[in-house]
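B., you asked whether I could sanity-check this one before it goes into the benchmark set. Here's the sequence:
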Amino acid sequence: MTWNEAGGTVSQTFDRWRYTDAQNRAYLRLSAEWSHAAYVRTWKEAEASANAAFDPDRHYGDEHVDVFDHAVDGLWPTDYLWLSEASVLKAAVTAFEVYLEQALQEFLNGYRVTVDGQKCALQLVTPKNFESPGWSTLVRAHMVLKNTVDTPEVTWARELRHLLTHQNGELRTQDSLEKFRDTDAEKDREEIDRAYVGGKVHLGAERVSRTLDELASVIRAADPVVWSLVWGSGRGEDGKRALAALDQAKLIETGPAR
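And here's what the prediction gave me:
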């Protein structure tokens, strides 16, 4: 038996990540569909309301714009889509990191050690007062398993997540602008609609979906190794060698038995 996503021969962690990934993609799609319908309806309602109260001696004919703006509390369609796209991208990067941690822990859960007569579980080294290991620990531990998880695409996605989380997507420097500018998407845009220093990074459903695909490809490349060590042919000597290498690299520690 070998790793097979279509047949469900995957790690338990992969199964959980796949469900989360599907939810993120559905949210991206449904948010766009449902918000479009709601905004069209609201715009028509604003036009009808403005027309009903129209007085040629006092009105100019564009009052429905203010009615619409008031109805949506200033959140216009492009702003709504940006917020939903940003939330999906941030959630996807977090889900990627969670997979890396939990996949390693799924492997470690198969082992116990005895310390001072007490059975102890193994876990990744975690900084004091933190519940999860740092990024460097995850990368190095997966390297022990022969998995490369810090690809250029992953680095870019994590840096974009940082920009969205800690700067609300604002491009504060020229370097940041060049790193996150979507030149393909800007080809058909007027100059005023292109990214600029001080403005927000452009996202778009296509760009977000592409990033999700890149993260998914790294996970799909890593999970066969994890599955083999936990459920497949690697459970024996391969697993012991991997465990010894993790210990030698000081990437694991003991914790309370679960």
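One thing to flag: The first strand starts at residue 112 and ends at 115. Otherwise nothing jumped out at me.
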